[in-house]
Write a structure and sequence with these properties.
355 residues, alpha+beta, Deoxyribonuclease I, Chain A, seven-stranded mixed β-sheet, 17% helix, globular, disordered C terminus
C-alpha cells in the first residue's frame, strides 16, 4: 500500500497551475492508494459546482459547505480522471484563509470510501478565525485514514496539547476503542525514533520552562474498530522532530508509530526546506534548521538528498506495521516542488494488496 501526505498550499502557491499539473503527474506515476492533503483551498466567492459534476466525491454528512469551481481537490480529481485515474475523494472547509479562501482538507482513495469523519480539534469554532482547525478522515476496508493539520505547541490560545487531546478522544470514540484508564502508563520513549533525521541523535535542546511537566493524554489502544486494522494520521503537525519535549514527543509517547522510523529504507525526511509562515517568529536560531546528518562528520554517505530544513510532516500509524520505505517527494530532487512543504510517500510491507 502506498500513502502520500502533502500540505498543498494550493491556490496561495506561486505558479499554481503549473504546480497542480506537476502533482497530477506525481499521482499518476506513483499510483498511491491514499493521498492526504492539507491547506486544500477554494475561492470563497467562486461559482458553486453542482454535485453531479463531482465524480468520485463523497460528502461528509456533517459538512454543509459547497464545493466551488476552483476547489483544489475537485480540480485534482478532474485532471486525474482525464488521464484515466479514478479516485474517490472527500473535502471539507475548516476556516477562512487569507481572507478569501475556504481553506480545508482532502483525502483521496483508490478504493471505495465507506465512511467519512470530520471534527474540530480547536477550541475556537469561528469559521473566520484562522486558528480554527478541523480533522478529516475516511474509512476504507483497510481502516481509517485521517488528514491532520495541527496548531503550534506554544500557542497560548490554541495549544497543541489541547488539540491533541481532542483528536485522540474523538478517534477513540469513532474507532470503537475505549479511552485508556487514567492510571495507565505511557509507552516507553525508546519506542520512538531516537535516531532523528536519518540516523543521528543530535537534537535541539529547546524545551519548555518546566520540561518535566509536559501534559500528555493517556495512551490507549488506538486500533480501528473490531477488525484490528491500523489507524493512520497523515499530515502537517507543525511540530519538529528535532525539538525535545514538544509535539513530536507527545504524539510518539501517546503510542503512535512514526513510519519514518519504522521504514527499512528512508531518506533524511526533511519536508520543509526553508522557514515558512508561522515559523519565522519561532525559530530565531537558524541552527534548529540544521539537519544533524549534514553536521555530523562521521555520518555515512548513503547518497540521500540531505539538506538543511525541518521535518514536520509525518505519517503516523497506531500499530508497528511493516514499512518498506519512507521518502520525501516533490522536493526538487524526487519530483518537482509543488508547495512550500514537500510531500511524504510511505510504502507499507503489503504494497501488493488492495484496500
Amino acid at each position: 500500500m502506498k500513502l502520500i501526505t502533502l500540505n498543498t498550499h494550493s491556490l496561495e502557491e506561486p505558479d499554481y497551475e503549473e504546480k497542480l499539473h506537476r502533482f497530477v503527474d506525481v499521482v499518476l506515476a506513483e499510483k498511491p492508494d491514499i493521498v492526504a492533503m492539507q491547506e486544500v483551498n477554494q475561492s470563497a466567492a467562486a461559482e458553486r459546482v453542482k454535485p453531479p459534476e463531482l465524480s468520485g466525491y463523497v460528502r461528509c454528512r456533517d459538512f454543509e459547505g459547497e464545493v466551488r469551481r476552483d476547489n483544489h481537490a475537485a480540480r485534482l480529481s478532474g485532471l486525474l480522471r482525464e488521464k484515466g485515474a479514478e479516485y474517490f475523494w472527500t473535502w471539507v472547509g475548516a476556516k477562512l484563509g487569507y481572507g478569501k479562501y475556504d481553506e480545508g482538507l482532502a483525502v483521496f482513495s483508490r478504493y471505495p470510501i465507506l465512511e467519512v469523519d470530520s471534527f474540530r480539534i480547536s477550541g475556537c469554532a469561528d469559521y473566520g478565525n484562522w486558528k480554527t482547525r478541523r480533522i478529516l478522515g475516511i474509512k476504507t476496508e483497510a481502516g481509517w485514514f485521517y488528514t491532520v493539520h495541527m496548531g503550534w505547541w506554544d500557542d497560548e490560545e490554541e495549544p497543541f496539547v489541547k488539540q491533541w487531546e481532542r483528536l485522540q478522544k474523538h478517534i477513540w470514540a469513532v474507532t470503537g476503542e475505549e479511552e485508556a484508564d487514567s492510571d495507565k502508563k505511557l509507552p516507553e520513549t525508546g519506542d520512538r525514533c531516537d535516531l532523528r533525521m536519518a540516523g543521528n541523535a543530535q537534537r535541539s535542546e529547546t524545551v519548555d520552562e518546566e520540561p518535566g511537566n509536559m501534559q500528555r493524554p493517556e495512551s490507549g489502544n488506538i486500533q480501528a474498530g473490531n477488525v484490528g486494522q491500523p489507524v493512520w494520521l497523515m499530515g502537517d503537525f507543525n511540530s519538529l522532530d528535532s525539538i525535545i519535549g514538544q509535539g513530536y514527543d507527545l504524539v510518539s509517547e501517546s503510542g503512535w508509530k512514526d513510519t519514518f522510523c519504522l521504514a527499512r529504507e528512508r531518506d533524511c525526511g526533511v519536508t520543509v526546506g526553508k522557514v515558512i509562515d508561522g515559523w519565522r517568529e519561532r525559530l530565531s536560531d537558524t541552527k534548529v534548521l540544521k539537519n544533524p546528518k549534514t553536521e555530523k562528520e562521521d555520518s555515512p554517505d548513503d547518497g540521500s538528498a540531505c539538506q538543511e530544513g525541518m521535518r514536520m510532516d509525518y505519517i503516523w500509524c497506531s500499530e508497528r506495521v511493516p514499512i518498506l520505505s519512507s521518502c520525501v517527494i516533490c522536493n526538487g530532487e524526487n519530483y518537482p516542488v509543488v508547495s512550500d512543504h514537500y510531500g511524504v510517500l510511505v510504502v507499507t510491507g503489503n504494497s501488493s494488496s488492495v484496500i
